[in-house]
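Appendix B. Raw example, untouched.
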Amino acid sequence: MQMKKEDIVNSKKRMNRTKTGYFLLMLILVCLTWLSGAEPILFKNEAAADAQSLKNPGVIKNLEEAKAKLQAGVNSWNLELLRAGRDLFINCFVKEKPENAYLLYYVALADYRLATFYLSSNNKEEAEKYTVEAQKYLEKSMAADPSFGESYAFYAYLLGYEIALHPERAMNLGMASFEYFSKALEREPNNPRINLLKGTSLFYTPEAYGGGADNALEYLKKAVGLFEKEVVTDPLRPSWGKEEAYTFLGMAYGQKKEYEKAREMFRKALEINPDFGLAKTELAALDKKEPV
């Protein structure tokens, strides 16, 4: 049956009203989200990560194993587990071509853990070796995905390790670290790990150079709040750091002699990860120094 001209016109009008109503509804939802203070999902600006984009599906299983191994090494501060975790990340990276920004980042994460282990053991030669290795992988990660802010934050943090190893270069390295942290926060201001790294960096930076507990608290508090809201469903995306954020927040409170707040943060860290050795050590030290 052929439609009359009048029916066609009316049909088009109804379709236009429907489209207009749809767009108005979406606009209202976005405005309400903005007014409520929540992050507008429609305009969310995050680095792209998708496990489905990997050419080798077996990488994800290996990646989860590598994450677990490295975390076990961090929990117990066990060198062999840290090395084993790194080897597994290297295996994931080698299997996936072309180079993936996230897999490059994970090798650098393992290198950072090893550099920290050796720096805390005063083995400067090994600490420098892993610091340099981590920086090389991060440079490749930044080139592979310039929108991924965590690589910039880690690079900034590791420049702090260079300062510890080469104090005579502190001025230039400090300026470079500030610039890379700025780039990281420009890309992903609401990334909890970026705020954790920034806060931790400030915690270890002398007050005379803009660091100290007071300055660190701003970023560590923000990191904790962001971790509480973070839900990571893509196995390719990083998800570490929540218990560390609470632990370093507790350390910052402890430095300010706000001991009850510090104790609360350490206990919260251990609720998240009962095996996290740093929180256990800090809580035991605080309980010895300031008994409940």
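End of appendix B.
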